[in-house]
Amino acid sequence: MQISRVHPVAGAAALLLVLTGCTAASDDADATAESPLGEYLSALWGGDLSEEEQAAAYEEENREREELMATCMKEQGFDYAPNVSTGTSFSSGEEWQPDEREWVAQYGYGMVRWPGMDDQPDMEEVYEDPNQEYVASLTPSEQTAFYEALHGPPVPEEELNEDGSYEWSWETSGCYGWAQNELDGDNPIMSEEFAPLMEEINQFYTDLDSASGMADVDAEWAACMADAGHGGFARQSEALTSISDELNTYYESQTEWIEDDPALDEIADREVELALVDLDCRESTDYRERRQDVVVALEEQFIADHQAELDALKAAAEQRS
Fold first, then answer.
1. Which residue has the higher pLDDT, 16 or 202?
2. Buried b (16+ CB within 10 A) or exposed e, 81-114
3. How far is Cα 12 from Cα 321, in angstroms, rounded to an integer?
4. Contact call for residues 65 and 113 (beta carbons, < 8 A)
5. Dihedrals φ, ψ of 71, to 5°?
6. Once rounded to an integer, what is the mean pLDDT over residues 92-107?
7. How far apart are CA 306 and CA 202, in angstroms?
8. What three-state secondary structure class fits 48?
9. Distance from C-alpha of 55 to C-alpha of 58, rounded to nearest angstrom
10. What is the mean pLDDT of residues 291-300?
11. pLDDT value at 122 more than 60
12. How far is CA 88 from the centre of its chain?
């Protein structure tokens, strides 16, 4: 699992959201057909839970992790107050409408601007670290030891990838890593038993855009984009990625936050322009419906090839819940 240096991705939910978040929503009934493979995966992260139930489950997992971390830190000779205030909210996704022209005209792909962005709380104002006062009372060397006990030592330079990511291991991630491993002990997607299957699922979605059947769909879409003055894309996903790359370059070049930066507004305008042309081309080529047909067929074949393993994984997940 490749993660950011800033903070490791914890728990099964984040992984499965990446695995299952591969197709865009559409009002068309054919394009929004249930994902056959998604039915299996949703059992692993509570896809049938309400927004409130998902939030409660997340908060409970965080509480358990933090209490385990406190126990571990005490054994390391430090005080640690469980931080049970996550500030995390869950959304039903109803406000996300990337296939609606009015929405796209306002948000593009939803990268620079997105629904509710102005309603986000100021984390610097609302977040209070319950350990801040204790850490401040420690000497500089004790503070270093505290954070190494909590999250592990710094990652050696030779283990970092070019983008700063690295292979995360709970064994070198301090009390956080130990606590997460304890929680993952009965989680089927983190077990050695299902590791080969999870790798197969991950690879399936990684290869989806280049899978057999996608070429004709993407070729017609790409020709439409080129005719509209936006050539250079071979696949629909590359349009969104181009904005993502531009946005990453922008943030990497910033040494301080600039309120209402005109440069960011320019990226937002280009995003909307590109997303609108993309939407037109998807509609004129029946892109969503045709792509969905291919995806469903590929998922059904994957299920046929891995039926026994998927049934066992789903049964284990249901037993755990």
1. 202
2. ebbeeeeeeeeeeeebbbbeeebbeebbbbbbbe
3. 13
4. no
5. -65, -45
6. 86
7. 14
8. coil
9. 5
10. 94
11. no
12. 14
Antiparallel, parallel or unpaired: β 166-167 and 2-3: antiparallel
Cβ atoms < 10 Å from Cβ of 291: 24
What's the token pair of residue 18?
A: 């990446």
Residue 34 has pLDDT above 90, yes or no: no
Q: What is the distance between the alpha carbons of residues 271 and 114, in angstroms, rounded to a whole number?
A: 12
Tell me the β-bridge partners of 166. 3
Backbone angles phi, psi at 18, to 5 degrees: -65, -45
| Contact assessment for residue 243 and residue 271, using Cβ atoms and an 8 Å cutoff | yes
Structure tokens at 130: 């319950």
What was the pLDDT predicted at 39? 84
**173 or 91: which leads in pLDDT:** 173
* pLDDT for 118: 76
What single DSSP character describes residue 93?
S
Model confidence at 221: pLDDT above 60? yes
Q: Is 218 helix (H, G, I), strand (E, B) or coil?
A: helix
Q: Taking 70 as the threshold, does the pLDDT of residue 120 lie above it? A: no
Residue with tokens 């996300």: 96
Instruction: Name the residue type at position 35.
Output: S
By CB neighbour count within 10 A (0-12 exposed, 13-18 middle, 19+ buried), where does 281 fall? Answer: buried
Residues 42-87 have pLDDT tens digits of 877 665 667 777 778 788 989 999 999 999 999 999 999 999 875 5
| Distance of alpha carbon 25 from alpha carbon 11, whole angstroms | 25
List the structure tokens of 73. Answer: 């830190």
Mean pLDDT rounded to a whole number for the chain: 83
270 close to 109: Cβ distance less than 8 angstroms: no
Q: Tell me the angle at which helices 140-151 and 51-75 cross, rounded to the nearest 10 degrees.
A: 130
Residue 135 CA to its chain's centroid (Å): 31
- Given this model, what pLDDT does residue 7 score? 36
CA gap 283, 314 in Å, rounded: 36
